[in-house]
Task: structure prediction
Amino acid sequence: MQAVITEKLVRSLTPQADPYEVRDPRLKGFLLRVQPTGVMTYWAQYARGKRKRIGRADALAPSQAFKVARTVLAEAALGNDPGAALQEAKAHTFQSFLDEVYEPWAKANIRTPKNTLGRLRANFPDLQKKKLGEINAWVVEKWRTARLKAGAKPTTVNRDLDDLRSALAKAVAWGLLGAHPLQGVKRSRADDNVAVRFLDDDEERRLRGALDARDERTRAERGRANAWREERGYPTMPDLRRVAFADHLKPMVLISINTGVRRGELFSLEWRDVDLERAMLTVRGQSAKSGRTRHIPLNAEALAALQGWRGQRPEPDGLVFPGRNGHRLDSVRKAWVGVLADAKIKGFRWHDQRHHFASRLVTAGVDLNTVRELLGHASYQMTLRYAHLAPEHKAAAVAKLVRAG
Result:
């Protein structure tokens, strides 16, 4: 948008979902960029793709920024590069940018910084030694072509490209790049409505049976261990036959298939997020993938599982499913793989319990928007992958084409 940049205008601007810019018609190249966070920064754009950061609007008055921009643009008009000295001082390679600049920020602001940084380092080996200013659309298009040719799925390439795009956006916001080098790079075409894995009735029955059998084996092992201890006069461990669950796995599975919470959300769940009286579970924004808090009603089975687990946990607060020494769990893979093997179920990941939850809702006639809200999807597009499980509305639509008589 174009407008004379004044103090009154700056006060009237509000952040939006995407960054936007206000260009002052009095001086071509003088602009104010507004970030979704509310941060506003003055820039002087002196050539295509080249900008020099002037300063933030909360530190500089518009009149001051205007004078600086005029000086920068005048220098450029004389054939000099106003940003050359600054770029030289801040000439990060992609690797040093990740190590020294992006990683500290990611650890404080991204939900899964270790995974994101790992992908940026492992999947872009040819970019690591390049200067930030050397990364452009052509370099990334060559990377994309090579990845797809090597057999990577378009969805995987898109995920990695999104990570790179986000990291470089921060380099722009922090003044290390004048403009985003990937503005013209689009995501690869991908089939977002791929089939999802969920359990049929027989598989679900076998899974539940395997969980029960595992609990029984664990209780029996504890009983034998206590008998051995009693014979030798050693203190015994708690009797697992007096509690609802032998360990954390079964209640975690029951909650997952009845609420659709993600694994990380379940690992981060605290007792303050569980309202047993109102039968409500809260996924807080800091542990949710979307960053938004959502509330999930607990059905009878999920509520009973949490009540039973709560009854055998002496801690009044903290994590619902703590790991060793009360720390956050980071994996249940070994136990989960064992249960799947016992149940003779193949190709079913822990995350697929979330698909199972959604699929059961859709086949039961629940509308897709409600499913979206329960899953916490940021966009409706993500939920459409389950639409094929409720084809009745499509059948009803085409049935209207049949003419009577």
Notes: The chain has three domains: 7-89, 94-173, 201-393. Residues 94-173 form one domain.
